[in-house]
Write a structure and sequence with these properties.
Blueprint: E1 18-21, E2 26-30, E3 36-40, E4 48-52, H1 55-67, H2 76-88, H3 95-108, H4 121-132, H5 138-154, H6 168-175, H7 180-199, H8 226-239, H9 244-253, H10 257-261, E5 272-275, E6 286-289, H11 292-300, H12 310-322, H13 331-344, H14 347-354, H15 360-365, H16 374-378
Antiparallel strand pairs: 1-2, 2-3, 3-4, 5-6
Length: about 375
Amino acid sequence: MTSRPLAPAPKRRPKRRAAAVLAPGERIQRTDHGTYMAVWNKRGAPRERRCFPTLQEAREWLERRRTEGEPPPLTGAQYASAQAALAVLPPGVTLLEAARAFAASARRGGAGEGTDGSLRLREALARFLGERRSVTAEVTWKSYEHTVLAFADALEGDGDPPLAEIAPAQIAAWVSEMNPSARNKALRHLSPLFGWAVRRGFLSRNPCQAVDRARGVEPPRGILAVADADRLLHAAAERDPKLVPYLAIGLFAGIRPAEIARLSAGCIGPEYIRLDASVTKAARARTVAIRPNLRAWLDAFPPAFPLVDWAALHRLTLLHQSLGIPWPSDCMRHSFATYAWELSRDAVAIAAEMGHRGIDVFFRHYRALALPGDGAKFFGIMP
């Protein structure tokens, strides 16, 4: 009797291995997409998971969660509001119990305040901004406020309708006259308010999701030619040395001008520039490597803080105008990204240094704009 050959065993998908195990309730594991998922799972607190492009960012997030201090003290307005709330509660009921009951009712879509459709646009904005104030960078927080108020002013009537009565057609009409970039920016800053209202049980759906975003090819971002960047830095070294650290960090680290203005001496180490949540635009910490030519410029021209102010920006304008160097919007950051991509072809690392959540934004704007060899020339500009 001849025996049949055994059928090969089915291949099993390999399990994801933990990239790091830290304190109890904390772990970091590599995902199938090449990112790192940090898990925060402490007793008595809701489980949290976040994905990061690098292991270092995942570790930093867990460290921040571990070292978070006590919540800030109440402001005078918050204290007065708490006193007023306690005055109307039945005897024996704490403010915490009332807040938990309200949150549970909102999650169920129950009869919490405002879940009956009575909550108006401006009151919703005030509540939304109050909750987001401590977890959102100031520039983003103000963008939300400005956009929602502009939308409210454009509405017919008193400009403060019930939130539940705002229709996608009203939003579409408001953005219809905007150019594609402004349209998408307005929707991007208006949508978080309605998304918050959905999560709190005030709305059943986000009307912004029914409004089409503008589609089109965005023009390439303006960058400085390598020769112009070289001329600008050396001219600043001769005429206005205080501008050199600001220019060098903007060009060779890609940090936003407003973020550079918020840097302190403790942010700049020997190998990395560390930007914590108080510095970055989106209130998410990140680190940027100090490349050899940036290290050389900072050693030759030690920075004095703050690195830039309105007077310095005015002097910079006069400087590049006197040299005949064009200065497109945010050209230092765009130059960094473009030349770093040409040099390394590592989109994930560059996007992480720039503070992007993924590589989509990077690929829409920066790749294939520099000639071969320009990356090495750009990061070879020395004092």
